[in-house]
Amino acid sequence: MDKKLESEFKNRLEKETEEITELKEETWNNISRELFPEKNKKIRTNWVKGFAAALGTVAVAAIMFFVFVTGDFTDETQNDPVQNDPIEDEVTERTNDPDTEDKDIGEDTEDNEFDNEPPLKDRFPHEKEVVIEMEGMKEPIEVQLATNDELRYIIYFDKDGYQFIPGEEMDEIIFALDEGYPEVGMEIQHFTDTTSEEVTEHVIESLAHEGMDVTREDLINWPIDAVMITGEGAEGNQVQWNTPVHRYYITEGENDSLFVFKQKLFVEAQEGHALRFDWMLESFEIVE
Questions:
Q1: CATH number of 161-286
Q2: What pTM was computed for the model?
Q3: Domain(s) of CATH 3.40.1000.10: residues in the chain
Q4: pLDDT of 168-220, one tens digit each?
Q5: Which of 53, 154, 205, 249 could pair covalently with 261 via S-S, beta carbons 3.0-4.6 A apart?
Q6: In Å, how far are 206, 212, 278 from 243, measured between CA atoms?
């Protein structure tokens, strides 16, 4: 309560007290004259004064209660220039409160985009039918989706006898054969911090280490844009039905990286499986 309000309250209280006191004295005199004989006036005076004093006290309390209830006293917050509008304060508080601010709204960072994206397997059909051409004839086949979210690629493989096997160093699509047959499959590897020329040189050295001769090195645009290198092994310079044939495709990936596809075949199985692997490779896609 400020000094101005306190002074106003004190003046009003004194004024009301004086009025009650005058009323008290007048009431006492009237009662004394009308009710009590003169000889008993002294005795009765103390009782009447006590009664009047009590009456005055009650009256003052009643007046104060009435003033507070009816709101005659001025609300100090109405004239206080420092006091703010509670509604305005609430709006300001909500606006400036860091805990209630919307965070990352409108921010379009690469990390947020990657975290909010669904898995690749949920963005493409899991299975579908495609038509490939084998030995001049069109053949419908059922293919299944394979994905690698870390390397951000998808590929569809032939469900009929082939299987996709993910790995730490490479992914593989293999064909199950009986024992005694050479391995048939396609490896998918990813390389960084290197060049196409360096990888090409490494592939040629690997073929030589495996006892294979390079039979072809060329730039191709189907099934993908790549450098293709083919190596063939022969025992005693004679090609047998089970002579291994390895075919490499070196293609560019994202951020100056490279993907290398290695098809592992043998002479008797080369024509059919190599063409099927190429059709699978045509579906290879790097997803941004």
A1: 3.40.1000.10
A2: 0.61
A3: 161-286
A4: 999 999 998 878 899 999 999 999 999 999 999 999 999 999 999 999 999 99
A5: 249
A6: 17, 10, 20
